[in-house]
Amino acid sequence: METAVAYYKDGVPYDDKGQVIITLLNGTPDGSGSGGGGGKGGSKSESSAAIHATAKWSTAQLKKTQAEQAARAKAAAEAQAKAKANRDALTQRLKDIVNEALRHNASRTPSATELAHANNAAMQAEAERLRLAKAEEKARKEAEAAEKAFQEAEQRRKEIEREKAETERQLKLAEAEEKRLAALSEEAKAVEIA
């Protein structure tokens, strides 16, 4: 009975349950396929060797995927560190602007000698207040954007970690299957020789 291919991933066929489909050229996994017209064609050891070769290939593909995921995780961590540095710098800038505004407001109370220039001083103070308010708003928006970039980088890092864990799980399964199939291949050769 032949299993229907549900999808392909990295050139490997999978069934609808997410299991790798292994197709043998000279028989079936249990050795019940036709052996052909004599010679060694279709022997159990050839079938076992083909299964073992396929398992080795699957393991190699999973290791390749694991290396690619490690590179993506490193890039995401670097992006996250950069976003954090930007966020921290913008947060400090916002604090500096607020402190400057507070110092300016504390130093701008008019004295009795400035009453003649009160109107001019009031207009200058208002202009300065507006300038500082705009600078504060701009810095706040930049800090919010930096925080958002940091959160997105963190989310991507977590996603990559989940993908990495899944790949490691699949790799362990594939390596175990490869060992099992290698043992079966050796066992089939021993049975043939005996």
TrEMBL record:
Residues 67-83 have a biased composition (Low complexity). It comes from the Bacteria. Residues 25-52, 67-88, 133-170 are annotated as: Disordered. Residues 30-42 have a biased composition (Gly residues). Coiled coil: none annotated. The lineage of its organism: Bacteria, Pseudomonadati, Pseudomonadota, Gammaproteobacteria, Enterobacterales. This is Colicin-E1 domain protein.
